[in-house]
Amino acid sequence: MPYLFFDFPEFSRAINQNGVTIFVSGFLLTLSLYHFLLYFQHKDKSYIYYSSYTFLIFLYIFFRAEHFFLSDIFEGYHDLLWTSTIPLQWVFYIIYMLFIQTYLELEKNLPQWNKIVKVIELSYLLILVSLLLHFFLTRDSSLLTGAHHYFFIPSFILFCLVSIILFFKIDSILKYYVITGSFFYILFGVIAFLVSNQGVYGGLLFFYFAIFLENIFFALGLGAKQKKILRDRNTAQEAIIKEHHINIQLQQDIKNRLDEEVAKKSKEILELTKRNEKEHRRKLAAEFSKRTLDLRMKALHTQMNPHFLFNSLNSIKHFIIKNKKEDAAYFLSKLSRLLRKILDNTQQKEISLQEELDIMQLYLEVENLRLNKAIKMTQIIAENIDSHQIKLPPLVLQPFIENAIWHGLALKKGEKSIQITITKLKRSIQINIEDNGIGREKAAIKKAAKLVEKEATGIELTRQRLEAYTEHLSQPVSILFKNQNEDAIDKGTCVTLEIPMLFNE
Asked: Fewest CB within 10 angstroms: 268, 312, 413, 479, which?
């Protein structure tokens, strides 16, 4: 935040003769060029704002330093250059505010103050344009000079003091670089002003010292910010890799157990088939068929929707690239919890209806993180149903929820919802899964046009699992798809599952 109040020709000449002005100017120009190049490497607006800020301070010193070694080149334009220092100072103060906004991420850390800063920036810019128009029309700089001394400088100092106080609320070590740099600038700027008003030579030196200290801390702060970004990114990547290795190990353990179980059962079957009793062979074949179906179900669990896992890991990668470490960590936590629940249920033949609904809720939360939390799901359970007592094979509802999301809701604009309604019939329970998506007809059209993915085979496998689970009951399993409104093809889809059950009368 360069100061305006220094104009001592004798002392200025002495400073320039000793190379102080050249040193400070070279320092600023070097910082400007270096951070300009860093912007193309990191694509962080903080670098381009800081590069512009230091370059404009360099121009400010160049225009104002009467005995600067380059000033002889522009000797005929000295008055014009001197007049331009006031609007130049307005501009780099505005750029300073933009730098602080992006560097400290005020939109996230201090959203209300960020809005006020935007209004102040726009107001300064409009006032400057109005003052410049008046100057060019009248060639009278008194209004521009008066507004600068008695409005802009006091109001900007007040803005800086309020900002420094508010910055202490930010939960980041980066704030101390801005606070320290601004503090030293204000301190030595005030000293320069007081020394100048007392008629003592030395104000210019204090001014240069203020600029030097402020920009040292700002440059260090930019380096610390980039170091923090890289450290957080590496931490998130390490967490993802660690979780990925854990999941791979879990899958491998389950696969090994399944291989052992299949080998054991195959050996039993070979031994039993040697017996000649036809009835026994029939029962054995039935048992083997059921066991094979169970193993297929478990195999499905261990490989649940690789496409879903692939997209989920891509979503985490996207969050990391965009430096949204909190979103990546939250998504990873939800996904890990879902995978662990699925793996925990791999060895279970059945789970409670309540556990199934809880897993579906968690599954929707994971999908919602990829869809910006666009879908709401409600569960309505009849009063005469104890969801903790009713048993089902694990993950029988997942294929229907997945189809509702990706074939109906993901392609729809506006409000999106899924409603699960569970009622008790005389010898079965009825589960209705209703969505307000685009409907089956439109989904079929988009599928034919290759605008949606090929429908998963999970629904047919779910039907087979339910039939095997209820084969000892006389009533068959029923799965029915229909539009919620038969007169309109875009009012969503309703899937009705009727699953036979034994109830205690």
From this structure: 413
